[in-house]
Amino acid sequence: MIDFLNAAFNGISIGAVLLLAALGLAIVFGLMGVINLAHGELMMLGAYATYVVQNGFKAIGDGWWNEIYIFVALFAAFLVAALAGLILERGVVRFLYGRPLETLLATWGVSLILRQFVRSANWAIVAGILLFCGLYFGGAWLLRRRPNWDSIKNWASPVLLVLSIAISSTLLAVLGRTESPFWTREWFGSRNVDVTAPAWLRGGFPFGNYQLPYARIFIIILTALCVAGIYWFLQRTKWGLRVRSVTQNRDMSACLGIPTQKVDALTFSLGSGLAGIAGCAITLLGSVGPNVGGNYIVDAFMVVVLGGVGKLVGTIVAAMAIGMLNYLIGAGTIAFLLQPVEPLANFFLFFSTTSMAKVMVFALIIAFLQVRPAGMFPQKGRSVEG
Q1: CATH 1.10.3470 fits 2-121+186-378, yes or no
Q2: Domain boundaries, the chain
Q3: Number of alpha helices (DSSP H) and beta strands (DSSP E) in the chain
Q4: How far apart are CA 122 and CA 59, in angstroms?
Q5: Is the distance from CB of 132 to CB of 165 less than 8 angstroms?
């Protein structure tokens, strides 16, 4: 019984990590219909925000504050990822609503840019980006104030874009050739970085011959709080009602005076912020690097699709089911339980590794979707007809 309960805890902890990673994606993909392949990179930004906050607290010196930095890091990770999501939605995604393939390609390109930015980020690159944003967006704001803007915008915008890129690239080249390490030293590089958990999150709770890691217990509690917060937001707040209204019928919501563009930006930012919280949580499980988001994006999409697009309850059930199956198959628990039936035991024993367990779970999901293509909890009503 203790062995089974330990296996169940490990499965739930894996499911909690998957749910935390998929929760933001369930909002963006499920409620907005946007295939955001940069979701994993938003998790990566949250992880690196946690790393920066940790180093900032360490720089202050030893003290009790190093035991509570994780709460500041959660807030910082949410803000950084939400701001990145807002920029992504306003700069790219809002032009591609209703075109899922274009959205997929655009966000995939953004994910590659974010990975490379983390690998080579330094003050010179940041200065060049800030100069470009100031020149282009500031210049566009000034030009829109001109009375003849409508007649010159067809050629003024491209010219402004080219000039802004040229000037900022020149500054970047000049700073990159300086001998000062302040401008050229990379912040993170391509190597993985480690985040040290606070002392109260190290170790585990004794349970028979096993230990239940405090870090995973913390992630389970954090996931439960995030789910409760999202449910409260969607069901009990004015903006949550607007989000659900736009999801059901965008045209009718606009006719009723709901600012659909603001709802889109808020929803995308919220989903991105949850990805940042997930990134903060996964730093407690191991080192993180530029490619850490890619380890979770496929599983997160499987959770959303299996649970039913746009269904929060389905996302929870699917995450727990996939987490439990991954662990029970990969750890050989199912093969052990089926020992009396030798052919079945040998079959599951073949899949009793982490990688092979993912293959079997993926095959089971495909088989399930053949029977229920809309997932465990399919949508009903006008949203399906649209």
Answers
A1: yes
A2: 2-121+186-378
A3: 18, 2
A4: 20
A5: yes
